[in-house]
Every structure is written in C-alpha cells, then in structure tokens.
Amino acid sequence: MSNKATLLKGTRDFGANQIQKREFIFGHIRKVFQKYGFGPLETPAMESMNTLTGKYGEEGDRLLFKVLNNGDFLAKADQEALNTKDSKKVLPSIVKRGMRYDLTVPFARYVVMNQQTLKFPYKRYQIQPVWRADRPQKGRYQEFYQCDADAIGSKGLIYEAELMQIYDEVFVNLGLNVCIRINNRKILFGIAENAGVQDKFMDMTIILDKLDKIGEEKVRMELGNKGISESSIDIIMQGIAITELDELKDYFKNSETGILGYQEVKQVFDFLLDSPLTNELKFDISLARGLGYYTGCIFEVESKDAKMGSIGGGGRYDDLTGVFGLKNLSGVGISFGAERIYDVMNDLFLFPNDLSGQPSLLILSLDASILSHSFQFVTELRKNGIHCDMYPEAVKMKKQMAYADARQYESVIIIGEEEVNSKLYTVKQLLSGKQEKLSKKEILTKFIDK
Amino acid sequence: MSNKATLLKGTRDFGANQIQKREFIFGHIRKVFQKYGFGPLETPAMESMNTLTGKYGEEGDRLLFKVLNNGDFLAKADQEALNTKDSKKVLPSIVKRGMRYDLTVPFARYVVMNQQTLKFPYKRYQIQPVWRADRPQKGRYQEFYQCDADAIGSKGLIYEAELMQIYDEVFVNLGLNVCIRINNRKILFGIAENAGVQDKFMDMTIILDKLDKIGEEKVRMELGNKGISESSIDIIMQGIAITELDELKDYFKNSETGILGYQEVKQVFDFLLDSPLTNELKFDISLARGLGYYTGCIFEVESKDAKMGSIGGGGRYDDLTGVFGLKNLSGVGISFGAERIYDVMNDLFLFPNDLSGQPSLLILSLDASILSHSFQFVTELRKNGIHCDMYPEAVKMKKQMAYADARQYESVIIIGEEEVNSKLYTVKQLLSGKQEKLSKKEILTKFIDK
After folding, report:
1. What residue in B sits closest to A117 (Cα-Cα)?
2. Model confidence over A274-333: pLDDT tens digits?
3. How far apart, in whole angstroms, are the C-alpha atoms of residue A295 and residue A205?
C-alpha cells in the first residue's frame, strides 16, 4: 500500500529559503500596515457557500473550490438530478462549504457580523492564501496568497493618501522602483456622461481596462460592439487622452460627477504635496480597473524595472457590505500582488543573501565520546542567543563535512579529544577554507552578533 | 439578494487582539525552532486524496474534508452507485483533493518527493492550520493550527535532548510551568515481552494511553477484553508502576528491546545532566501515546498550573516515509498544542497587556482646514518609526473622542488652529485624563521608543 508521493497540480511546497524570501516581503508589508494603524484579521479557509456564491460572477462560481458534505452526502441529494447526472442541480444538496476565493468577501462578512462591536472607521489588513480552480500554468496557482489592507466606515480621502504612502514605503523598503497610477471612477463616469452613455458605464469601464493589453483600435471596436456610437466613442477616447489633471475642470463643466472625481484625485495629490512620495504617483485617466464595486479613487502599481503587469491595485467602494445587509458603508483598500512581487524581486536579485532559513554555524564531533561535550557546547552557544546546529552522530568526518558543505553552513567547529583538553576549538570557514583556533569565549564573541 | 452574514460552525475569525496573542505564542516557538537549526516548511492546504486516505485510520478517513472536483463532476461518476445513493462508492469518482488533516503526512510526502535534494538529517518546523470534520464543541474546531518540529534522517539521540530543550525554552519564554514526561516505546514493548503479549503490543499501548482518563480498573478490564490473561495483566501493571528509571536494568534482564529503551531514555537524561532544564523532565513508564508510528522515545507536556490535558507531545518513529516508498528513515518530532496553550495562557493572564494590534496614539483634527496639517504631522511621526493613526475626518470632537475611547488608544493629540500657529500640541492621556502641551520635537521623543 505504498503511494507515490505527489503534489496536486497548481499547488506548491515552500522550503526554508522560499519561506524566508516570502516572509521578507510579507514582513515588510505587515510592518508598514501596522505603522499606519491597520490591525490584522484572519478569516477561516472555509466559508458557507451562501457567503461565497454569486459574489465573483459566473466564472467565480465555477472556479470556487467546493467542499463535499461529510458523511453520507448523497442521502439528501436530489434523486432525479442524480439520475440525469445534473451536476449543477445536485451541487447545493451535497455541498455547503466553499474555500476562500479572495479576502474581500470574508472581510465584508466579518464587518457585517461584528458591526455592533467594531468601531468605525475600522482599518484591517489580511494576509492569507486563497484558492481558485483556475487551470494551472506558469505563474498561476490554485493556492496563492493575497495581501489586502482596507479602511472602512469613512469617506475621508486621508485614507487614499495614506494608502499611497503605504505603497510607497513598502516598495522603497523592498528596493523596487514602481509607478503608482491613480484615477477615479467618477471621472470615468463623467466621461461616459460627456459621451451620453451613462447607461453603458460598466461596459465601458471593463473595455477601457483592457486598453494596455489590446490597444486603442480594439477598444474602439469593442465599445462599438456594445452599441456605443462612433461619435460617443470619439468623446470617450478624447477623454481618456487627457494627461493633465487640471484639464478636467474644463472638460467636466457639464458633469457634476466628473468634477467630484477630479476634486477627489486633486485632494489626494494635495495631501501629498508637502510629503512627496519617493516613487512616482501618476494621474492616469485611462486606468479603469475591472472590478464592479469601485466608486471613487482607483489605483494600480507597476514595477518600473520588470515587465510583470500590475503588482498592486485597489480603490474606493461605497457598498461592499450591502450584499450582507449593511448599506452605505464606504471604504477604500489596496492589495499587494505578493506572488508577482516575489517573482520580480527574484528576477532582479533584490532579496538579501542571508535568507537561507538555517543557522550559519555547525558543530561536528570526531568521536561518539565527544557528543556529550559538543552538546554542552551548542547548548551554551544557544543560551547566548546564537543560532547554531550540531551534527547528531559521530559519523566519519568526511560525511559530516559533506553535509556542512551541501547545506552551505558558513562555518564549522570540529571538536575532538584535543579540543576538549586544550579548550581551544578549530573554527573553519567553509567558503574560504580559513581556520583559526579560538577559545569558547572568543567563539561567543565572534558569533553573538551574527 | 442580501445574504445573512454567518460563520460556518467550528470555524473562527481572529481579530487584531487574538492574532497578536496567537502570534505571541507562534513567534516564541518559531524563534526557538530556528535557534536550534530547524527550518520552516509550508505545504499546500489541499493534498491528493491518494496522499491522505488510509493514513489516519477509518475515523480519519471519515473526518477528512474532501474537495469536490470542479466542473461537471458527475459526468464521470459511477451511475449505479448514484442510483443506489452509495456515497462511499461514488466518492473516488467525484473527489480527488482533500484538505490537510495534519502536518505529519504532508511532511513525509515532502521528504520523499525531495529526497534527492534534501540533505539528511533534515530539520524542519511547520506551523499551519489543519481541517477536521469533527463535531464542533467548546475548544474543538474544524480549523485549527498545528505546530510541529521534526528532525529526520538520523537516529542520534542528541535530537531527543534538543527537543526537550526546545520545549523547556519555549515554555520558560511563555511563562508557563510545565512537566515534560518521557518514556520509550521499546520499554513498553519490553513490558509486553515480560508479560508474554508481544503480539498484542499495539492494543496494550492504546489501552495504557487511557490510564490517566479511565483509571487502573478499567484499563485491566480492557486489557482482559483483548484476551490478555490475568497474570499477564499483573505483570503489565507491575511494569507500569515502576517509577525509577534504573529499576529497569533489573526488570528487563530478559528483554533486549526493553534494555534498549532504557538506554535510550537514560542517554537523553545524560545529555541533559550538565545543562539541566528549567522545567521538570520526568520519566513516566505509563506514558504510552496513542499513535501507531512511534518506535522510540515518546514525550508529553502538561501545564502544572492549569488542568488542560496535554499541551504538547511527540516521539521517535522509524518508518514515517515508508508508506510513500522511502524505507528506514528514522526521525523524531514534537508538536505544540498551540490552541490549548492559548487557552491556558488566557486563563492564567500570561499575555502581555500591550497586544492590542493597533498604535497607541491617535491624532484628531478640530476643523476640516486642519486635516492637511494633521496629515503632515502623522506622516512625520511615521517617518520616525512611530506607529500612529489619525481620525480621517474633522467630525465633531465628541465623536472623535468617543472613537478614541472605544478603541482604547492610550493618547490623543488634538490639533486646531491654535496648535498650528503656536506649534505646541496638546497630548492627552485617555486613561488618566492627564494633558500636556508639547512641541513636535518633544512629541517625537516621547513616542519614539513606544
């Protein structure tokens, strides 16, 4: 009954080095979130299907991982649907749990459940894996981490400005040059108003979102396909060709919503006037973001040094919690594309070198009778806070050294009878081969700050 | 289409304060693991059903959460089994993924998959949630964290000694008084040999494991039910009444395995002779541990100050990876019962007070025209590494103060026109009501070390 050891497609193990690198990213993000007053939240991996279904569109419903009811799950299944093998119809009767698909819906569910005890505005961050049944391919996984921060319960644009500072500070700390683009859904709505296609606003937004990928010509074609007239398309394309924020004052003289959008973006820039970001913050009227729930400022971040698409994004929404019965709660959030940030940083060699996830020092013993002495030795080093390791058996020194080399320890200390007697220990640097004889006290001093 | 916001039974949300407390525990454990040379590992939430099935006994198979295949999952289902509503028979044709049930099987799977690149001995720790379809009740959840460390690929008893030090150091750091009990499966086998019931060794072990819970009389009865004779039961009970390790030398004069077990435990104590633990390490011949795979030393930890059952346990195994085709790889591991440790620490008020998960300082603005000034102010504080927050709108001061009170900020700074002009800011401690007027420089000094 021996099984082959395999991983499911689209899933990954993370070893020590990868985890150290990932934690390097998450740690930096977490630290900045906390500094800006965002507190952590964790929600369960499984949510009720009622919570999840219908929140991510038809494709989302399809890509949700569903957890089979335990026990005799068919007992309550619809017999007719079983007979006709109608999977869709059988589903609700055999599944009541689904796996977390993003962090936004669980956040909204949490806010609504805890509205009586939470004090608004409530600022939370959340860094957890999500699961999607996407077809696995290079860089796309069925389990991956999301990393979100949201401030909910206030319309104050201070939060937009804060979130821009958070992006800036995190990417400065990670050593990544980025461009943060900002726009506002109300500006896009103003453009739709100017073009007389307010009723097709969401269609327009979704199509404009693809401008970078498919180019202007195809965008015009798709807009036309949605029944938008040639002259309206001209007005839209003129609108999204605007580069200077202040041009909007004139462009929107007949659109109240457009002007409001202009003022919101302007206010964010104004807040940041006296504390400019290190990275570029750029108004980009063509930025649309595909998601339906945004209603105010929207953001997207790209690396300037690697072609990787968006490594962050977010925006303001006015009705995230409405679907759970709590109306009119405005919030704004951003997310970090941690998996892509990892890839960019790997490609650009931005990770520090010492993220091996193991101590740099290994103690070797020449003889079984020495093991106890070696053990006291590492115990003393550890008591002084030194991360170190010892080879657990007195096997041939060649084998112990091969282990030290293979695991890339920086230094080894070899202990034999001579060392025990003389109380002088040979410390060998593996890369250089350099050796020196040191007392225990000298060794403590040497490694204590590592 | 408004849904009621609910959590699935047996699952939990963790807010800021709980996460800080949990991270207090995990952080201490992680730090000690790393100091002792254990590196992190993370495995996916979902594993192939082939990997999971049959590893946890019949009950485990039942309690595994199974993830329904995506798409038209019934298309390939056995029609006859559907017709008869035979859930068990349908299962393999509609489910290929299961959710992580413990950290041991994924660890074994990882070791076997990576045996060519891993250098043995390999020391890993893993802190991740697992899922079990247990009936939810107080203190028992369907999603909970496990926290394991294992050293695999060496029989060296140094590792047993190290793991005892790890238990000791972690519980000292957490402020918990514990008793670590140690025994050895070979000693239990020796007792079975002495009683002439080697063939019923596992039955005996599982029954002895319940001694604490059900008492001696019921243990005798259950042993009898397994067909063990009265005289054999007497020998077993005499054996597990032994309290002094060295008595075993005599007791096992006819059991080679028993003597080996004695020597192993003795060696662990010997290693620790010159570096005694702070907590009690106690030989307990009646310690059995229920799990089938242990073959050498076994451990269990209990709090001395709270009745909570075991808050940690582990042992040595010789064939964890055999089921995936890699034979004879000996290892030893421990786990921390993090959820119970949390409850004990909560009951005993052992968590530090400052784990709120939010900054201690909140900036308030008297007027909308001040917001920009306040924003520059918090920006400067944050640039100096101070965790702080600002109320995002200039609503009535009463409302802002109520927010500060409700969220239990330690101090607020109220900024109005006067403060902007005088450059002296009122810092108010909320608990004491104490106020003082400070310059920005004084404020930086005051909060920078918080």
Report:
1. B406
2. 999 999 999 999 999 877 789 999 999 999 999 888 999 999 999 999 999 999 999 999
3. 12
Q: Between chains, do B67 and A99 touch, taking CB under 8 Å as contact?
A: yes
Residue to test with chain A: of B1, B12, B13, B376, most A Cβ within 10 A: B13
Mutate to test the interface with A, among B1, B7, B405 (most CBs of A within 10 A): B7
DSSP codes, A83-117: HTT-HHHHHHHHEEEEE---SHHHHHHHHHHTTTT
- How far, in Å, CA of B235 to CA of B252, rounded? 12
Of B68, B375, B391, the CB nearest to A68: B68
Residue in B with minimal Cα distance to A389 = B37
| B119 closest CB neighbour out of A70, A75, A406 | A406
Which residue is it, tokens 């964290």?
B145
Q: How many other CB atoms are found less than 10 A from the CB of residue B395?
A: 15
Size of chain A in residues: 450
Q: Measured at the alpha carbon of residue B123, what is the angle toward residues B120 and B126, in degrees to the nearest 5?
A: 140
What order of strands is seen across the sheet that includes strand A178-184? A39-40, A122-131, A143-152, A331-336, A310-317, A294-303, A178-184, A280-283
Q: Which residues of A touch B406 (CB under 8 A)?
A: 119
Q: How many CB pairs under 8 A join A and B?
A: 321
- As a whole number of angstroms, the distance between CA A301 and CA B361 comes to 30
Beginning with the edge strand found earlier in the chain, give each strand of the sheet holding B361-365 in spatial order: B388-390, B361-365, B411-415, B424-429, B435-439
Chain B contact probe: residue of A31, A46, A122, A360 with most B CBs at under 10 A: A46
- Chain B's closest residue to A85, CA to CA, is B74
* CA B414 from centre of chain: 44
For residues B404 and B355, the answer to whether their CB atoms sit within 8 Å is no
**For testing the chain B interface, which of A17, A31, A46, A68 should be mutated: the one with the most B CBs within 10 Å?**
A68
For residue B180, which of B190, B167, B194 has the smallest C-alpha distance?
B167
User: Minimal CA–CA distance to B282: which of B178, B211, B180, B185?
Assistant: B180
DSSP string covering B170-232, please?
Answer: HHHHHT--EEEEEEEHHHHHHHHHHTT-GGGHHHHHHHHTTHHHHHHHHHHHHHHHTT--HHH
Rounded Cα gap, residues A310 and A25, in angstroms: 16
pLDDT in the model for residue A212 = 86
Comparing CB atoms, the residue among A35, A82, A359 nearest residue B37 is A359
Map tokens 């409001």 to a residue. A260
Residue B80, judged by CB atoms within 10 A of its CB (0-12, 13-18, 19+), counts as exposed
> Given phi > 0 = left and psi -120 to 50 = alpha, else beta, which region is B95?
beta
In the numeric block, the tokens 């002009």 are attached to B421
The tokens for A351 are 């990770």
Give per-residue pLDDT as tens, B69-123: 999 999 989 888 888 899 999 999 999 999 999 999 999 999 999 999 999 999 9
Q: How far apart are CA B126 and CA B38, in angstroms?
A: 9
Q: What pTM was estimated for this model as a whole?
A: 0.94
| Separation of alpha carbons B356 and B349, rounded Å | 15
The DSSP call for residue B96 is E
From A381, which residue of chain B is nearest by alpha-carbon distance?
Answer: B35
Question: How far is it, in rounded angstroms, from Cα A325 to Cα A320?
Answer: 10
Contact assessment for residue A149 and residue A334, using Cβ atoms and an 8 Å cutoff: yes
Q: Closest partner residue to B45 among A143, A155, A356, by Cβ?
A: A143
Amino acid letter for position A188: L
For chain B, the average pLDDT equals: 94
How far is residue B64 from each of residues A9, B99, B132, B387, measured CA to CA in Å? Answer: 20, 7, 6, 43
Chain B residues in contact with A161 by the CB 8 A cut-off are: 375
Average pLDDT of the residues in B18-46: 97
Q: Do A46 and B121 touch (CB under 8 A)?
A: no
